[in-house]
Amino acid sequence: MNIWKISLQNIKSKPLYTFLSVCVLALSITLLLGIQQLKYSFKNQIETNLGKIGLVIGAKGSPLQLVLASVLHLDNPTGNISYTEAQNIIKNPRVKSAVPISYGDNYKGYRIVGTTETFLSIYNAELETGSNVEQSMEVVLGATVAKTLNLKVGDTFLSSHGLIENSVDVHNDELTIVGILKPTHKVIDRLIVTNLESIWDVHHHEVEDTSHADYHHHDHDEVAKEIEADKEITSLLVTFKSPRSLLTFPRKINESTNMLAALPRYELHKLYEYTSVGFQTITWIAYLILVMSGLTIFISLYKMVKERAFDLAILRTYGASNFQLIKMVLYEGLIIAFLAFVIAYLFVKIGLAIVLNFMVASNQQNLLVNLPYQELVYLGILVFFKVVLSVSLAIYPIIKMNISTILSHEK
Questions:
Q1: Spatial distance between the Cα atoms of 35 and 26, rounded to a whole number of angstroms
Q2: How far apart are CA 271 and CA 21, in angstroms?
Q3: Alpha-carbon torsion angle 282, 284, 286, 289, nearest 10
Q4: Which stretches are annotated as coiled coil (predicted)?
Q5: What percentage of residues in the chain have a pLDDT greater than 70?
Q6: CA 260, CA 52: separation in Å to the nearest integer?
Q7: What are the pLDDT digits (tens) for 355-380?
Q8: CA–CA separation, 239 vs 236, rounded Å?
Q9: d(Cα 118, Cα 45) in Å, to the nearest integer?
Q10: What are phi and psi of 237, to 5 degrees?
Q11: Angle (CA) 128 126 266, round 5°
C-alpha cells in the first residue's frame, strides 16, 4: 500500500482547501522571511561598513544625517569643515587614524569621494586591475560602478556637480580611471574614489584662474596661502588608540569647535530602534497569520478525515494500521507546508530582485544581502512543528475510529 500516492490523491481531490492552506501559510512565511531579510541586511551594513570607525566629525547639523552621509553614503552631507581644523584632529595623539573624505560630485548618480589611501583599508578593498590614485584627476572605481557603467582602466569621464545625475552643471576637468576594485559587497563597491586634490582642483578651478589673473596685484605666496586656507572636506572618519577616548573626545569637539562629532554605532543603533517597532509589528502580524494558517491546515485535514471516514475504514479492513493512516495525514500536511515554503521563498527572491533592479536603475546603494542559511532552517523547523501540531489534532477521529460502526452506517 503506497501511502504517499494516496496522500497526493487526497490533496488533488480537494483543490480549494489545499489552495487556501498553501496561500495563507505562504503569506506568513513570506512576511517572516522578508522581515528577517531586512533586519539582517541592516545589521550587516552596520557591521561591515563601520569597521573600526569610532567617530565621525563633520559640519554642525543632524548627527544621524552626518553618519548616513559619511559612512553609508545614503544622505546629503551636513556641510563642509575646514581642512586646516581637521588636520589638528588628525595630529591629536589620541587619534590612531583619521581619514578625511570630501564629496559633492557624481558621475551618472555614483558618488565621487575624495580621500586618502587609508580609506580603502576601512573596507578591506583591494585592486582587481590597474593601480592606486597617485595624481590629481585620477580615480579608482568600485566593482559595481565599473560593471554597471561598463567602464575600464584608461577611460575618462566628466563629473557633474551635486549627488544626483544631471547634464546641466558638468565640470570641464576630465577624470581618468586608473584602477578598479575587487567586489567587497560593501558601500565602496558603489563609489568612485579619488584623492582630495582632485575634488579641490575641480571646485577651485575658477578661483585658481582668478588668482593667476591677479598675479601682478598680489604676492604669489599670499595667494597660495589663501587657496590652502580655503580647502574644505566633508568629514573625518576617526579611529582612536583607546576606546576610552570616545567618552571625552566627542564632547570636546562639540563644545569647543564649530564642528559636530557623532558616534556612528550609537546613531545607527538609535535608527534601528526606531525602525524595529515597525519590524516587530509586522513580525507579530506574520506570526498571527502563521497561527491562522495552522488552523486552516488543521480544519482542512480534519474535514478530510471526517469526510473520508468510510474510505479510511475500508483501508483498515485491507490491513492498513492506524500508524499508516496517521502517516497519510502527516504527508498531506507536509506537502502543503513544502509547497507554501517554496512559494514564499520564490516570492521573497523575486521581490528582492525587483527591489535590487530598482536600486540599480536609480543608482541607490544596495543594502540587501542574502539571508543566512540558519534563518531558513529555523523557519523551516518552526513550520514543521506547526504542521505536526495541526496533524496531531486532526488525527483524533482516526484514533477513535470504530470500523464496524462506520461501515454499518454507510450500508
A1: 14
A2: 37
A3: -130
A4: none
A5: 84
A6: 19
A7: 766 655 555 555 566 677 787 888 88
A8: 10
A9: 20
A10: -105, 110
A11: 140
Return phi, psi of residue 217, to 5°. -100, -10
For residue range 40-93, list pLDDT tens digits in order: 777 777 777 887 888 999 999 999 999 999 998 888 888 899 998 889 898 889
Indicate if the alpha-carbon torsion angle 125, 129, 134, 137 is positive or negative. Answer: negative
Choose among 140, 70, 77: nearest CA to 98: 70
Cell output for 365: 546603494
Alpha-helical (H) ranges within 59-203 are 63-67, 83-90, 118-122, 143-149, 196-203
- Please state, in angstroms and as integers, the Cα–Cα distance from residue 29 to each residue in 16, 268, 277, 408, following that order: 20, 28, 20, 44
CB 331 within 8 A of CB 3: yes
Cell numbers for 324: 499508516
Contact between 77 and 59 (Cβ < 8 Å)? yes
Residue with cell 559640519: 59
Q: What is the C-alpha to C-alpha distance for residues 2 and 118, in angstroms, rounded to an integer?
A: 67
Its pTM stands at: 0.71
What does the pLDDT look like over 176-214, one tens digit per residue? 999 999 998 888 998 999 999 988 888 665 445 444 444
**Number of CB atoms found within 10 A of residue 184's CB:** 18
Picking from 35-44, 145-154, 187-196, 309-318, which range would have the lowest pLDDT averaged per residue? 309-318
